[in-house]
Design goal:
single chain, 1015 residues, mainly beta, Immunoglobulin-like, Ferric Hydroxamate Uptake Protein, Chain A, domain 1, five-stranded mixed sheet, 9% helix, globular, disordered N terminus, TonB-dependent receptor
């Protein structure tokens, strides 16, 4: 048996956990303290000073380094620094982004103040453009650069939500549902898939959905035209958003913390209470000569109080970063928690990131790695519609019903509504996702002008969906279903290999940059699911919800794989900083198409002329003027992985033989199109960039023309063709887009009161050029899409006021004297007989409006004075016509839904109203295909407002920090609109009914308090 030395002894506390012996701990601490004390006092001298810019303002965050050593310090918020030096004859090196590096010998001084000079080249924005970077001033294509700080300051789940109004040509629509992902379009609808743009994160083709932490962003570039995006070829038709995540910087360890706590509230309808509801409901039944319901007038339920609550968001992020001249690192972690404003909804996300990079001689290696785990609690149905369908006379609870919840009955409250509390408690839905994403890269500087880069990317996601339905009902006449458990597990993988060579050379006034590369990406996705019914309850009041319980088991699953291989090249030529040419070619091959159509070529060419650098240019008040033009092609293969292959059903059986035994068979159930080929987007772009008044005022404008040919769509076929497995894919539609974008900004930082203002405006017109297969029109819901017009125009009956008396009804005739609405009564809606045939039919429908805004604008304002900062962002959308779906429910009177508070149906005593008479069980005045429900969708909204205060440097230093800021902010606090729904800024997933508010989750009013500090 070995003997334990005293210093190795372990003391034990109750529970068996051990910790180092007390003597060992004390000795170790003494030795460590003495070592530090000795090191700190070994032949060092302290030097202090202050660093300012050319205007005398302090420069925080400047790296102060003792030359040829590892001793480093940084300046605080007031520009002050303190550093220990080995002797007073050494040299200090001062460096900071945007300033020229400065070296200064101490010459025996212990106090040294420095004035840094602006580095004009460094002040030019560096833009990531795919497989490389460019100076913003040298761009020839349409690229929008969004400041990371502008994105991160907003309280949002995803990156897309925060981009609204920050760049021209970008249309974003989101909502307040926890974990929801915003829809984003770049320069209009280019196909019928509704696909979001391509996201490229640190060189990895990925997505920036709800499992990506926006706090990790360093920079965002939006590639809008073909010349900018063509380097990504077949996946860039919907635009490209390039995100670069944060990296460590040269200097000592920097610790940064940001925390924000937010309160969210849901906008609400003004709905009738029991007294008002029952009065109008009785009126509707009386007008229809139908016996009244026996409403429970002793109940007055506010279903919005039942379903809605105050939500909150907790958003915390912390990072550790640093580096040296040979490498850098960043480690960050974050937590995002969102308790939804609707009961039984929420979203949580944990994120962790490690970015490192090191350099040795001509070799550089680095990685970007992140892991996130997110979980959303979801609710079935649509609570926005539920709360307006449910009657105030129905109680929340009813012990006589299975499950114990109230949802009406045939005699006392007939309704299609759903009790939102019942569905929240009787159903449990959750969706959990674990995602790992990252890339490993290596660079070899073969020659001074030639660099090789290998990029290896990998992303994997593990999804787990769980559903439990308990015994009980939540709506009237609901079919019985036993307790059910369902689980769905899926996994996806993306593997990426890229090789690039970059050649950069300066020949006098000639500058050349050439990139050539190869890329291979493989995507796989697999899913399995299982369901069990008749689960057993457990003693605690729940259920045994694992899939080995219950009976009537069902299982299923599938597996997909897609491969894409690419070859690409780009050449950039610059002569004397006056003439710039950029050419790109990419060849992509994808497994989604048949053997003859797998490959596509996507070239582009762009050029720019900087007139302001010509000798004849003498305009002193205009500092820069550059004209740009581009032409290029992009592609899309956004279909299923096997759509060109016939779908076979292997579950079919047939009786064969003398004994008529069942034999296994296989039948083709979906027609296949082996001639599927690429969508092709051809785009032109013409623009200019200008700077005025010593670069304080900048203006950028774009005009673009885009045409998408061979758009992929599912073509409807009759079942009589034998096609019952879904509509086959075809190339059949041609779409056009054209628009104008203008961005202008003014900044003045010459005085203590600093300010900047940026405004952008976008106009866009989309048009269907060809529907294919000799089609001229297609109808979806209340819309028509026809050649020569935008997608999804409103196609409805027109209303023309109300009939006030029988004489008006009798006199409403066509040219032949036929009474058009002979069955109408005073108070009914008069419809326009547009075709003059003497009756109201679908043939009278006409196009009455467009769901697409005529223009959208963004306005961003920033002010600062001493320690105070103020920021405000506005966004506006104007000219669209939208369909108010919830209003078509609560103002119809023909069924049992609630009504708006204060609504005044027509009566002989109340003829001066636009609301028709209340009439039960008839769609005479409530049909959903009329312009009665169409409203202006124009709005202007204050998206964000914030006031921040930077704590004084002396106070912060006493607390041990180098900087600290507190802030209060609000989002969606003010909305100017005539729209009567909850939110004019709604989104839906329908391509053809973009302006239809189905009862979408509104954007929430949010008030936040934040804290940031670093040391």
């Amino acid at each position: 048996m070995s003997k334990t030395l005293p210093i190795q002894r372990r003391l034990r506390r109750p529970g068996g956990r051990s910790f180092p012996g007390r003597k060992a701990f004390v000795l170790s601490f003494i030795f460590l303290w003495l070592g530090f004390a000795f090191a700190a006092n070994a032949q060092t001298q302290k030097v202090t000073g202050r660093v300012v810019d050319s205007k005398g303002d302090p420069v925080p965050g400047v790296t102060v380094k003792v030359q040829n050593t590892t001793r480093v310090s940084t300046t605080d918020a007031e520009g002050r620094y303190s550093i220990d030096v080995p002797d007073l004859q050494t040299t200090l090196v001062f460096s900071s982004i945007g300033y020229t590096e400065q070296r200064q010998a101490l010459g025996g001084q212990t106090a040294l103040n420095i004035t840094l000079q602006d580095d004009q080249q460094a002040l030019d924005d560096v833009v990531v453009v795919g497989y490389g970077t460019q100076l913003k001033k040298d761009l020839t294509g349409a690229v929008s650069v969004v400041k990371a700080q502008d994105v991160k300051k907003r309280q949002a789940t995803t990156v897309a939500e925060s981009l609204q109004g920050l760049a021209s040509g970008i249309k974003v629509r989101g909502g307040g549902q926890p974990g929801s992902e915003a829809q984003i379009q770049i320069r209009g609808l280019k196909n019928l898939s509704g696909t979001n743009p391509l996201y490229v994160i640190d060189g990895l083709v990925s997505n920036a959905n709800r499992d990506f932490n926006p706090a990790d962003i360093e920079s965002i570039q939006i590639l809008k035209d073909a010349s900018a995006a063509a380097i990504y070829g077949s996946r860039a038709a919907n635009g490209v958003i390039i995100i670069t995540t944060r990296k460590g910087k040269e200097g000592p360890l920097m610790v940064e913390f940001t925390g924000r706590s937010s309160i969210q509230t849901m906008p609400r309808y003004e709905l009738a209470g029991t007294e008002e509801f029952s009065r109008i409901n009785f009126m509707a039944y009386d007008n229809a000569n139908v016996p009244r319901q026996n409403l429970d007038l002793g109940v007055n339920t506010d279903w919005q109080d039942v379903a809605f609550r105050t939500g909150n968001v907790q958003d915390y992020n912390m990072s550790f970063s640093g580096g040296s001249s040979t490498g850098n690192y960043l480690v960050s972690g974050g937590y995002f928690g969102n308790k939804g404003t609707v009961i039984s909804t929420g979203f949580d996300r944990l994120s962790f990131r490690v970015n490192t990079q090191g350099k040795k001689g001509i070799f550089t290696i680095g990685e970007n790695f992140s892991v996130t785990n997110s979980k959303s609690d979801e609710m079935s149905g649509n609570p926005i519609i539920d709360v307006i369908r449910m009657l105030p006379t129905i109680p929340v609870y009813n012990a006589a019903n299975p499950g114990g919840y109230g949802y009406g009955d045939e005699k006392r409250g007939r309704t299609f509504g759903t009790n939102p509390l019942a569905i929240a408690n009787l159903e449990d839905r959750s969706n959990e996702n674990l995602r790992l994403r990252g890339n490993l890269f290596g660079e070899l500087q073969i020659l001074k002008s030639l660099k090789y880069r290998l990029n290896l990317g990998y992303e994997t996601s593990r999804d787990h969906y769980k559903y439990l339905k308990k015994d009980g009902f939540w709506t009237l006449n609901q079919a019985f279903d036993p307790a059910i458990a369902n689980e769905n597990r899926a996994e996806s993988e993306t593997k990426l290999i890229e090789n690039t060579l970059t050649f950069t050379k300066q020949f006098g006034k000639h500058s050349l940059n050439v990139i050539a590369g190869q890329s291979y990406q493989q995507d796989t996705y697999a899913q399995i699911w299982g369901t069990k019914r008749n689960l057993l309850p457990n003693p605690s009041g729940g259920y045994y919800d694992v899939l080995d319980q219950g009976n009537e088991g069902l299982t299923g699953g599938f597996r997909n794989r897609t491969d894409i291989i690419s070859y690409f090249g780009r050449a950039e030529y610059n002569y004397a900083d006056k003439y710039l040419i950029n050419g790109i070619i990419r060849r992509d091959g994808v497994s989604r198409f048949g053997p003859e159509y797998k490959f596509g070529n996507f070239p582009s060419l762009s050029a720019a002329w900087r007139i302001s650098n010509e000798e004849f240019y003498k305009v002193k008040w205009m500092n820069d003027l550059k004209l740009r033009a581009s032409y290029g092609t992009l592609g899309s293969s956004n279909i299923g992985p096997y759509d060109y292959i016939a779908l076979i059903n292997t579950f079919s059986t047939i009786a064969l033989g003398q004994g008529q035994g069942a034999q296994q068979g296989a039948t083709q159930v979906k027609l296949a199109n082996r001639d599927l080929r690429w969508e092709e987007l051809v785009q032109q772009n013409y623009g200019f960039d200008a700077a005025f008044l010593n670069n304080k005022l900048t203006v950028s404008a774009e005009y673009f023309i885009a045409k998408t040919k061979d758009v992929l769509l599912e073509y409807p076929l009759l079942l009589s063709t034998g096609n019952d497995g879904g509509n086959p894919r075809v190339n059949g539609v041609t779409l056009g887009n054209r628009g104008f974008e203008l961005t202008a900004g003014y900044a003045n930082n010459d005085k203590p009161f600093k300010y900047n203002v940026t405004a952008n405006v976008t106009t866009l017109r989309n048009k269907v050029l060809d529907l294919g297969y000799n089609k001229n029109k297609t109808y979806v819901g209340n819309t028509v899409t026809e050649v020569g017009q935008p997608i999804g125009m409103w196609y409805v009956l027109q209303t023309d006021g109300l009939f006030q008396n029988q004489a008006e009804i009798d006199n409403y005739r066509n040219a032949n004297g036929t009474v058009i609405q002979p069955s109408a009564k005073p108070g009914d809606i008069r419809y326009k007989d547009n075709n003059g045939d003497g009756q109201i039919t679908n043939s009278d429908k006409i196009v009455v409006g467009s769901p697409w805004p005529k223009y959208e604008v963004g306005l961003n304002i920033g002010l600062s004075y001493k320690n105070f900062e103020f920021s405000m962002d506005w966004f506006g959308s104007f000219g669209s016509t939208v369909f108010n779906g919830p209003r078509s429910v609560i103002e119809r009177f023909d069924d049992n839904s609630n009504y708006p508070a204060g609504v005044q149906p027509w009566t002989p005593q109340n003829p001066n109203t636009s609301t028709p008479r209340a009439y039960y069980a008839s769609t005479l005045n409530s049909r959903g295909d009329t312009d009665r429900w169409l409203e202006s969708g124009s709005f202007a909204r204050m998206k964000y407002v914030a006031l921040s205060y930077n704590l004084p440097a002396d106070f912060v230093k006493k607390a041990g920090f180098s900087r600290a800021q507190i802030s209060i902010s609000g989002q969606n606090l003010i909305t100017l609109t005539k729209y009567t729904g909850l939110d004019p800024e709604f989104s839906n997933g329908s391509i053809f009914e973009k302006g239809y508010d189905f009862g979408a989750y509104p954007n929430l009013r949010t008030v936040s308090v934040g804290l940031q500090f670093g040391f």
